[in-house]
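@channel anyone free to eyeball this complex?
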Amino acid sequence: MSNLLLVGLNHRSAKLDIRQRASFNADQLPEGLKRLSDRPGILEAMIVSTCNRVEILSNADPLPSGSESIEAFLSDYSGISLPLLSPRLYRYTDDQAIRHLFRVASSLDSMILGEPQILGQVKACYSAAVAAGTVGSYLNGLLQAAFRTAKRVRSETSIGEYSVSVSSAAVELVRKIFGDLQKKSILIVGAGKMGEAAIRYLAETGAKSIYIANRSPETARDLAERFHAMAVPFDEFPEWASRADVIITSTGAPDMIIDPPMVQRIMHDRKNAPVVFIDISVPRNVDPRVGDIDHVFYYDIDDLQAVVEANLNERTKAAAAAEKIVDQEVQAFCTKLKSFDVAPVVVQVQSRIDEICRTELQRSLKKIGPQDPRQIEELESMISRIAGKIAHPLIMQLRNSRDSMDETAYMEMIQRIFKTKQNTD
Amino acid sequence: MGWILSIAMALYALGLLHSIFGFYQKRQGFVKIALGMVACGFAFHTLFLILLGIARWHFPITNLPESLCFLAWCISLTFIAADFRYKLNALGAFILPLVSLLMIFFQVFWDKNRAIPPGLASGWVYFHGSIAFLSYAAFFLTFISGVLYLIQEKELKQKRFRFLYFRLPSLQVCDELFQRSLFVGFIAMTLAIISGAVWAQQAWGRFWDWDPKETAALVTWGIYLFLINCRFSARWRGRRAAYISIIGFAATLFTFGVNWGLHKYL
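replying in thread with the prediction:
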């Protein structure tokens, strides 16, 4: 029988320095996999190593010997002493290990719930293990199931839809007003660090034009060149503001540089076309009261934070649906595993009963002496009917009890009764 | 023929359920399935109307239930066109309930043995009737997109990032849909009024009679003309335009409902 064993640490169980020391980079993986698979009791193995987790997934001897073997390997490889490492490791077997793997692949165990990179990372680690030849049919099947689960979670829940960084939340917010940004112009007032970050992000949204106004014209020109934007004189920003659909302010000015009367003029020039102010400066550059004007939308850094929180909230909701999908897939995978396990027992039970009946028949025939072939034939067919009738309910019971918990116990009992020895590996 | 109607109704109902579920759960896939179902339902609905027209040997808007059935068909048509173009998750959940409701109403009150009013025995009914109903359906879409705009604008202005913020379309899309449906509706209504006048001239010898429906239609037309004017001059757009569209839709409902005087046959 296969014994799935997962030993690992992640961002919840271990601090960054431990995770760093225990991690394997892409170059170390082949060597690590080789040394891992040379350990006693390890039949198949793969290493999942990302910045937030190091996990060893193996088809190995059951606890504790398999786990000891893996823990010793991790300690040897990372140089972290076992007493320091051991309390930070989690150990999962069989169903639990399957569930954990599925949750990891679906990004339900990630530091940022639903982040999309993890699936690619798991796939890369799997490829490395395949290349190193440490993966057999069991882990193969398991990983395919894990990828399928992750794909289902992506497509059937909205877990990946909500952005959780402030800048992407800002873009999302602007998209809720303007839809597509391709026909929209953006003005950035103040090209400090935050302003630059905003430009870098906005340059990727495909906005029609980006204007940069900065107190020092050199910085503005510099940035404009790098991001295919247009530098405009700082003093003239109010005029440029009426051409922009999105206005981002991030100057170091100690007071408001944009107030309601100015925005009213802008709106008049714009013929009331909607405009969005995003004020990422502290202290604020834009008077919040501009948000009261029709067709003007005003958001400061706290509002953006609120969007991020709302997004995280939605992700958490989507995660509940994702957990259900994981449950289903774990169930499906376990059922499949068990049905593989039942088949050999069925064959063994049948042949054992058959064998007993035939031995007894032979013995009786010897005692009776020579017989008419037709009678022998009849006896043989009777014996095999009896064998079938005894085996049938047992086998049916085995097949039907696949989902119930006591199935293993039942199987073991049958094996004991018929003295069949199971060997499925 | 009844079974074709049943299939159409069943498909609409399934489309409605999928739309609501897709809207609630933010599942694009379900919304797409819903659009497919409504499109199939629409095909059966069309077939039913054709068969009904053949059976009655008349354009099937000869009484109120029939006209509601045809109105449902027009709304489905505008919904399919809008959803196909804009792929809005929210639209089905707001439009399809009315379609299903109209169909149920038709199913319950339809009496196929009712006589055809003699006034309708003219080729004009095809054009005048269908274009008028199309304008009602388009104005319904204007109304819905205006309401969606108002809700989403409120969420955005008040910085409430909740259920509807995530599910309703962007203001821009609401506005585009608003504008297009408004134009389609307005042109259709203009043609309906003109064709009605020409028909009246032929049938009764006068272009205009100030019959209640005519008057109501003219008032409604005036409201939408005002709205288009506002929309173009950029004075009133967004929220205010949406408010006017609500008034306009109320007037449209009134126009549809006034069936006395010369239009008493409905």
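from a first look: The interface with chain B takes residues 155-156, 158, 161-162, 173, 175-180, 271-274, 291, 294-295, 297, 299, 303, 306-307, 310-311, 314, 321 of chain A (CB under 8 Å).
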